[in-house]
Amino acid sequence: MSIYLDNGATTRLDPRALRAMLPFLKKQYGNASSIYKLGRQAKTAIEKSRRQIADKLGVNSEEIIFTSGGTESNNFAIKSIAFSNRDKGNHIITSKIEHKSVFNVCKWLETQGFEVTYLDVDQNGYIKGLRKAITDKTILVSIIHGHNEFGSIQDLEEIKSICGDIYLHTDACQSFTKIDVKHADLITINAHKIHGPKGIGALYIKKGVRINEWQHGGGHENRMRSGTENVAGIVGFGKAVTLKSKTEYIRELKEYFIEQLKDIGRINISRDLPHVISVTIDKIEGEAIVGMLDIDNIYVATGSACNSNTLEPNQSLLAIGLEPQEVNSTIRITLSRFNNKKEIDKTVRVLKETVRKLREISPL
Amino acid sequence: MNYSKKVLDLFKNPKNIGKMENYDGVGKIGNPVCGDVMHLYIKVKDNIITDISFETFGCIAAITSSSIVTEMVKGKTIEEALKINKDDVLRELDGLPDIKIHCSVLSIDALKQAINDYKSKQ
To answer: Catalytic residue at B34?
Structure first.
């Protein structure tokens, strides 16, 4: 049996979401744009999911646009707001702890005539300096809601009050269904972080926000995002948001885990989001820890440079003040409602043995 | 990261680990880009590497590269050991992911430095 503790990367599909999806992968294969019964049934299923997601966010169904996932929603929101509001200004504000699908979009926009300010964060992972960064050219602020590495949650209410009329976009993939997401004008969410299927996400666009379609074609999604709808994915997404997230149970597991991890390493922040634990274990390297745990079928993540495609240490961990050496010695454990205390006990046992072995090899 | 079975097996049971007392040469290499640090110790008798060990702070590739180098040169003459290059290491490991090839270079550099250290004391 494996122990899956990388729920920040993706989550296990809930069997109830799978069951809801299956008809749309079998007999209900109609294109939602077709006017006959088979098409209309698909359309009805999509609209039911849209309502389920809108209800969860406390918004109107018409404000939800389905996309292929978090990365597309972030690309859509930021690029399209930028180009649709260019007459108002060319300045965008984001932070140094964003997901790459925000950070790299902003980097690209810099090559297209936009100016971007990347806000610093304090040691608790909260952004600072927003008020000072705003200029009369600022058209968009994009700030991650719940952080994927160390779990800090930004105060969107305060951020929006500082923004005023400037649009606020937030990437809420990690926090959605676990913590209320409110006050932003655009919200990125997806299904596979909440026990739904991969390849499906959504963008909430508040009514009245000036934004044009980004993916052109047949005019699907109320002419905001073209492409034949991923009906099964949408249905699975809708089902997933209706399931109990068991946030308190997950938070208890986290506290239980953190108590035992304190003997092993230093915990980085990790307090706001209920499922994220970041721990730095001195003198041994993150990818090696991941590899050792993998031998025992325990799956965790690392921010180590050695585990990335760029050989750069995780930028978010550097932003909260960790030294590169510490980042390379940091692992991330992310829990879900499918985990239990027995798994945590075993993981702690194996982790202690792993630390002992790797320290024996380490020259530090 | 796609590692070969050989790499993963060796990672489970790395050979010749630990600090050596009374070594004849030591190579200490650090790679600030990836954050790897490697120490390689050799004992030499009659021009032959009779004992060798390593300590590595680093990823799976760094640990297995160090381990395989120690196995490859144990019992070899200094001249034979110096002929070993990164391609030999990669062959022994059944390859490494492209982004990890520098780890094999690191292990060779540590070996060369250990041998130079030994020679400088003669």
So the answer is: yes
Decide if A350 touches B, using CB distance below 8 A: no
pLDDT digits (tens, 9 = 90+) for A81-134: 999 999 999 999 999 999 999 999 999 999 999 999 999 999 999 999 999 999
CA distance A356 to A364: 13
Would you call B59 a catalytic residue per the annotation? Answer: no
Contact between B59 and A325 using a beta-carbon 8 Å cutoff:
no
Minimum-distance CB partner of A306 among B28, B38, B58? B58
Collapsing DSSP to helix, strand or coil, B122 comes out as coil
Contact of A288 with chain B, judged by CB distance below 8 Å, is answered with yes
3-state secondary structure chain A: CCEECECCCCCCCCHHHHHHHHHHHCCCCCCCCCCCHHHHHHHHHHHHHHHHHHHHHCCCHHHEEEECCHHHHHHHHHHHHHHHCCCCCCEEEEECCCCHHHHHHHHHHHCCCCEEEEECECCCCCECCHHHHCCCCEEEEECCCECCCCCCECCHHHHHHHHCCCEEEEECCCCCCCCCCCCCCEEEEECCCCCCCCCCEEEEECCCCCCCCCECCCCHHHHCECCCCCHHHHHHHHHHHHCCCCHHHHHHHHHHHHHHHCCCCEEECCCCCCCEEEEECCCCCHHHHHHHHHHCCEECEECCHHHCCCCCCCHHHHHCCCCHHHHCCEEEEECCCCCCHHHHHHHHHHHHHHHHHHHHHCCC
Q: Which of A281, A283, A306, A330 to mutate to test the interface with B (most CBs of B within 10 A)?
A: A306
Whether chain B has a CB inside 8 Å of the CB on A22: the answer is no
Q: What is the pLDDT of residue B31?
A: 65
Instruction: Tell me which of B29, B57, B67, B99 to substitute to probe the interface with A (most A C-beta atoms closer than 10 Å).
Output: B57
ipTM over the 0.90 cut-off: no
Q: What are B's interface residues with A at a Cβ cutoff of 8 A?
A: 1, 8, 11-12, 14, 17-19, 28, 33-39, 54-63, 99-100
B57 vs chain A: nearest CA distance in angstroms? 5
Count, residues in chain A: 364
Q: Do B35 and A361 touch (CB under 8 A)?
A: no
pLDDT value of residue B30: 85
Tens digits of pLDDT across chain B (122 residues) = 789 999 999 999 999 999 999 999 999 998 655 678 999 999 999 999 999 999 999 889 999 999 999 999 999 999 999 999 999 999 999 999 888 888 888 899 999 999 999 999 88
Does the distance separating the beta carbons of A313 and B59 come in below 8 Å?
A: no
